[in-house]
Amino acid sequence: MRPSAIVMSLALLSPLALPGATWAQSTPSDVRDLVGARGSSGETALTNRGYVNVGGETGDDRSWTYWWNERRGVCLSVATMNGRYDSIVSTPSPDCRRSRPTTLPGPVGGPVHDGRPTTLPGPVGGPVASGRTETIRFARGASSATRQGTVSGYETVTYLVDLRAGQTLTVALRTSNRSSYFNVTAPGANQALFIGSTSGSRYQGRTTASGTYKIEVYLMRNAARRGERANYTLTVGAGR
């Protein structure tokens, strides 16, 4: 076979040999115009287009946020550098805390949910795919409770606590893995009122609604992908 023919054959075969490579680096058509936008205006535009911020992480010279579009089934990884969106690429759905992705055909591309339960702590709610759920009830005369546990990979452990409007909720996390965080979601809300990956390991705030508050402990995608685990101690308090 002539060298030119070999090169042509390899060029034709390479997309088949690496089906995820092109997709992983592609920018969906509905957000291409946001590359280079200022971070604040980009966030507003993504929200208006149906995306919800589900967390992020910070590097040496840039930060990354992950955005989930429930209708399209698309997860975006947005890199911000010097206050502007440096890149926006579609990324596997577990990065947005969704399980068992498949590929959505067509110009948009990206993962789509296959109908099974999903784990998505943070701004977008969803039933827990793995991990346990526990209801926290304070002992008589006590205003706080401590729970110890372990979370690994894409597992999420969920704690439920019933509170009245006007109480002060305090949550603190001590963990063996610096990529482990918790989120707090109010009753009936589809967005978290606290996202640990961007706000830290301690929350305190006054409740605005009565009902069951959800506290989810999880690992960020960099640790979850490697199957890491975190041993943690979670302290939850409710004051007047």
Strand fraction equals 35-45%
Count of distinct strands = 15
How many H/I helices? 5
Strand count, sense and barrel status of the largest sheet are:
5 strands, mixed
Q: Ends: how far apart?
A: 81 Å
Whole-number mean pLDDT: 77
Helical content (DSSP H or I, runs of 4+): 10-25%
How would you classify the helix and strand content by structural class? alpha+beta
Task: Return residue spans where pLDDT drops below 50 for at least 5 consecutive residues.
Answer: 3-24, 100-129
Based on the model shown, name its key terms.
16% helix; alpha+beta; five-stranded mixed beta sheet; 15 strands; single chain; four-stranded antiparallel beta sheet; disordered N terminus; 240 residues; 5 helices
Descriptive overview:
The chain is globular, with a radius of gyration of 20 Å. It contains 5 helices and 15 strands. With 240 residues, it is of the alpha+beta class. The chain has helices at residues 3-17, 19-24, 39-48, 196-199, 221-224; strands spanning 51-58, 63-69, 74-81, 84-90, 102-103, 111-112, 133-135, 144-152, 157-163, 168-175, 180-185, 194-195, 202-206, 211-219, 229-239. The strands form 4 sheets. The protein has a 5-stranded mixed sheet. It has a 4-stranded antiparallel sheet with strand order 1-2-3-4. The protein has a 4-stranded antiparallel sheet with strand order 8-15-10-13, with no helix packed on it. Helices cover 16% and strands 39% of the residues.
Helix and strand layout, with pairings?
Layout: H1 3-17, H2 19-24, H3 39-48, E1 51-58, E2 63-69, E3 74-81, E4 84-90, E5 102-103, E6 111-112, E7 133-135, E8 144-152, E9 157-163, E10 168-175, E11 180-185, E12 194-195, H4 196-199, E13 202-206, E14 211-219, H5 221-224, E15 229-239
Parallel strand pairs: 7-9
Antiparallel strand pairs: 1-2, 2-3, 3-4, 5-6, 8-15, 9-14, 10-13, 10-15, 11-12, 11-14
